[in-house]
Amino acid sequence: MTGLPQCAESISRLANQTGSLREYEDLHIVLRNLSRADLEVAVTQYKLLDIFSHMDLSDGNFSEAALNIAMVIFSTFRLIEFANSHETELLKCITSKNLPLRDFVISRLTDGVKNSSPEDINIPETILLEISKIAIIEEITTASSARSFLMAFGICHPDGVKILLNNESILAFFASISSDEDVVRLTEIFAHIASKRQDTFKEMTEQRVFDRLITISRTNDPLLQLNVTAVLKLLLVCPSGRAFLQLRYLYFFSSLAEEEPVAFLGNPDYRQPLAICLSKYLSSSDPIITTCAIEAIGQMCITINGKRELAEYLKFGGCLSPLFTKAGAVMMNASSHSLPRILVALSDIINLPVAQDNLTDLIPICELTQEWFGQLCAPGPQIKSLSRIWDLAKQPFKEVRSASLKLLRSIATEPWGITMFAELPGFMEYLLNPTTETGTAMDGHSLQPEKFRIIEQCERTQELWKGVAPAWPLFDDLMTARVKKGIEEGVWGMRKAEAAVAMDNE
Q1: Is residue 211 part of a domain?
Q2: Mean pLDDT in each 10-residue stretch from start to end of the chain (506 residues)?
Q3: Looking at the UniProt record for this protein, which Gene Ontology cellular component terms does it annotate, in alphabetical order (predicted)?
Q4: Residue by residue, what is the 3-state secondary structure of 202-228?
Q5: Could you tell me which residues come within 8 angstroms of residue 5 by beta carbon, excluding any fewer than 6 positions away?
Q6: In the 8-state DSSP scheme, what is residue 414?
Q7: Is residue 476 domain-resident?
Q8: CA 338 to chain centre
Q9: For residue 425, is it within any domain?
Q10: Most buried of 21, 63, 270, 364, CB within 10 angstroms?
Q11: Are 392 and 417 in contact (CB under 8 A)?
Q12: Where are the alpha helices (DSSP H) in 466-494?
């Protein structure tokens, strides 16, 4: 195996001058075989990261070699540690036409922001500006990594929003945005941050981030109107967001009435304009419009009252029931970029928030959600839908896995849900196996804690509904004991093993 002494001269030379493609490919092989200690020496003493400044990243072959080398280095070290010392090299990677290289670097910066203390997060202005440009004006299909970075920076860094909105270059870029679509995308990022960090909303309103959003609602474009509504929905999460909209909501809705009077006002015999609009959007051939409509319905179904109000519309044959056909079709196409959003919306529709002592009053709601879940794979058995969600939870794509686990947790809030869990062969074994997420954390932290929360929810539902609704037998005694044991062993299934090791070492 080649060690550091044998390759030190090559690293030093490539850190100071341009090499051949073969040299970079050989270096990649060498780096893969170095120990962490040797790799650290190569980075700190031999200036390994400087090689990126001498590579022609506009050339596809060289940029591919750069990506391979970067994946070795930054799977070992946190990229955020080098954001200042190697600003030029990182900026060159971020502006590269090699999208996998660019997205890899931005994703590693995002991981650093999420997993570092605030004092360790110091991203240069040039990098923040370039990532902001990618997030706002790039094609939405290639801008997800940059959007995720800005959201993480605004949420995880205590002063992230202040940094973004008080930097002259970045603020000037935001002010220069003229496209309605780009304005909506910008405000969506900040609305998402505000929904998670309500203390940042004041800074956003002082910089008038959302002012242009209300004006855009007047455009005669259904997709834009839906996207604006989605952003406004995020603002309603916090009291300051609701107060902000109260000053403007009459103008907002009067604009909608002006542009779409028939759809908005309905007619004297059927005054349900929102249902008409959503039904129309669910039948759209544009997946973006359909996804927004499904999300809007999901938001309304979060509460028990919301589920009751929409029961007539979502029943089989109801005007909004195509939601389940559309969602079921998307679930069969795991490559769809809208799949995670639809899975999250379904989790809102299915989730049972228990906020009252008399559980028998909730049985009709449980029957509703069970019927809705069954429509996802109608006319097939509903367990087929659970099997498909299980398949999605094992996908290599983190966003899909995360959204699938969220939906499974919502299903676990239902007595019929855990009954179905027990009926699907192998499913409970999957939930109770703490190793299924091992090796899947290359794109960030492991989702094993999310899977463990499903087990915890199963136990809560079992205890809550035991003996209440005979139609759903829940878990038998053996499975109940296995679930309790799984919870006792902890997220990683190691509590007892660690205790035994500790006792042996005493």
Answers
A1: yes
A2: 66 82 84 78 74 78 83 72 76 82 86 85 91 91 90 93 93 91 92 90 90 74 79 80 68 53 46 72 84 86 86 89 92 79 94 78 93 90 92 87 94 95 93 77 69 92 89 91 90 59 46
A3: cytosol
A4: HHHHHCCCCHHHHHHCCCCCHHHHHHH
A5: none
A6: S
A7: no
A8: 11
A9: no
A10: 63
A11: no
A12: 477-488
**Cα–Cα distance, 18 to 54 (Å, whole number):** 5
CB-based contact 421:427 (threshold 8 Å): yes
426 burial via Cβ count (<10 Å: 0-12, 13-18, 19+): exposed
Cα–Cα distance, 323 to 291 (Å, whole number)? 9
Token duo for residue 30: 């060498």
CB neighbours (10 Å) of residue 69?
24
Place of tokens 């028998």: 360
What is the CA 68 to chain-centroid distance, rounded?
26
Q: State the amino acid at position 500 in one-letter form.
A: A
The number of domains in the chain is 1
SS3 label, residue 267: strand
Tokens of 403: 């959204």
- Residues 185 and 195: beta-carbon distance below 8 Å: no
Q: Which domain holds residue 229?
A: 177-237
Assigned token pair, 127: 């990098």
> What's the gap between Cα 219 and its chain centre?
29
Quote the tokens at residue 228.
Answer: 């604006």
Report if residue 183 sits inside a domain: yes
Residue pair 67/101 in contact (Cβ under 8 Å)? The answer is yes
